[in-house]
Amino acid sequence: MGNEGQVFDLEQDEELRVEVECPKNEFITVELKTGTAEIFGTEMVVNTKYKYLSGSKFAIFTYHGCQIMIMGKMEVQPYTSKETPMIMYLNTHAALEQLRNEAEKENERGPICMVVGPTDVGKSTLCRLLLNYAVRMGRRPIHVDLDVGQGSISVPGTIGSVLVERPASIQDDGFSQNAPLVYHYGHKTPGHNTIMFNRLVSELAEVVRERMGTNRKAGVSGVVINTCGWVRGEGYNQIKHIAQAFEVDVIVVLDQERVYNDLVRDMPDFVKVIWQPKSGGVVERNQEQRMEGRDLRVKRYFYGHMGNLFPHSFDIKFSELKDRVYKIGAPSLPESCMPLGMKPEDNQTKFVLVPLTPRDLLNHILSVSFTTTPDDLILTNIAGLICVTDVNVEEQKLTVLSPQPKPLP
Q1: What is the pLDDT of residue 240?
Q2: Regions of the chain with pLDDT less than 70
Q3: For the chain, first and last CA: distance in Å?
Q4: At CB < 8 A and 24+ separation, what contacts does 1-6 make?
């Protein structure tokens, strides 16, 4: 397909679904020519060009009709559809807004909404939509991301929360990351270390609860929680733990009626459980695409969405890092081989010193903790992340990539 512009005329309550597949380092531009439209709840500005790189997938929705122009080479033809759950999602927002109004009148806490479902059903998109709509109503909700495989607030392998004060940027593909609260987990699935994951969830829930108590606007606006796609077995138990820790009162289940029925059975009566269909525009990802997505999240953390950030590279002497680099979780041992009084699950939260060798550190992402004592490592939020780009054993130094110049905190 050539570089000529394609024009799409959308009718009321219709969406244009776009999958960007173009040569590397190239992009397409999307422009709203007339009417009103939005991308995942963020309003588009007329005659403004939005750039999208290869691999991007998004939908442009209009409540009243619009004209869209797309410029650039595309291998997959965009298409329009009227079969969309957007009106249902809008009704969910309206119900949450009603709960916020009631909380405002009664001087109580606003709704805490959790979105659950298997992988590739649009959980992150629905969370973004609900948060954007809330902000457009003048609210200041808290976004909590527990999807360690995706890591929309920081990078994969972390969980965190952020106060949302303005709609997500279309261009930067996310919410403003001013003062996010991030915790280190270190794995791409919550099943890798369930004990640690549950402890982090409980700690984050407590901090969010305190934030809602001290910030009246955030307290009334409530919380929107994104979860991972593990909904069977221990994954379902984690969903129940999240609901209990955050004192969730609204659960939106996407796509899977089995999970919906299980939650209706297991949740207290005051928890409203809602089932909603996934959008027909949701694209399923294979293992390779998930890996590419995680790599892209890490790259954007250091270099920005369009390569507009410039990280710092500097050396750190081994002597400065002596007894300061840890990983959490030791190999499991049979109960018969463990010290008296120690349980097998204790190994999952045990601190292990990491040798300063290329095998253990090269091309690894390290969290930089605010704490000065190992005992507080798990439940202390992190200052940021660095990437080890070289380990020089002869000169006894590491070379790291960091968003901020040295020294590290």
Answers
A1: 98
A2: 1-4, 173, 331-346
A3: 50
A4: 1/73, 1/74, 1/75, 1/77, 2/73, 3/71, 3/72, 3/73, 4/71, 5/69, 5/70, 5/71, 6/69, 6/70, 6/71, 6/78
Residue 28's CB: how many other CB atoms inside 10 A?
23
Exposed / middle / buried, residue 220 (Cβ in 10 Å: 0-12, 13-18, 19+): buried
Provide the pLDDT for residue 308. Answer: 85
Distance CA 327, CA 271 (A): 37
What gap in Å lies between CA 342 and CA 339, rounded to an integer?
Answer: 6
Q: What is the pLDDT of residues 222-274, one digit of tens each?
A: 999 999 999 999 999 999 999 999 999 999 999 999 999 999 999 999 999 99
Give the Cα separation of 224 and 222 in Å (integer).
Answer: 7
Report the DSSP beta bridge partners of residue 351. Answer: 328
Distance CA 30, CA 50 (A): 5
Per-residue 3-state assignment (H helix, E strand, C coil) for the chain: CCCCCEEEEECCCEEEEEECCCCCCCEEEEEEEEECCEECCEECCECCEEEEECCCEEEEEECCCEEEEEECCCCCCCEEECCCCHHHHHHHHHHHHHHHHHHHHHCCCCCEEEEECCCCCCHHHHHHHHHHHHHHCCCCCEEEECCCCCCCCCCCCEEEEEECCCCCECCCCECCCCCCEEEECCCCCHHHHHHHHHHHHHHHHHHHHHHHHHCHHHHHHCEEEECCCCCCCHHHHHHHHHHHHHCCCEEEEECCHHHHHHHHHHCCCCCEEEEECCCCCCCCCCHHHHHHHHHHHHHHHHHCCCCCCCCEEEEEEHHHHCCCCEEECCCCCCHHHCCCCCCHHHHHHCEEECCCCHHHHCCCEEEEECCCCHHHCCCCCEEEEEEEEEEECCCCEEEEEECCCCCCC
Query: Is the whole model's pTM more than 0.70, yes or no?
Result: yes
Residue 328, beta-bridge partner list:
351
Compute the chain's Rg from CA coordinates.
Answer: 23
Tokens of 222: 């409530």
Q: What are the chain's domains?
A: 6-83 (2.60.120.1030), 86-276 (3.40.50.300), 311-402 (2.40.30.330)
User: Is residue 73 within 8 Å of residue 22, measured between CB atoms?
Assistant: yes
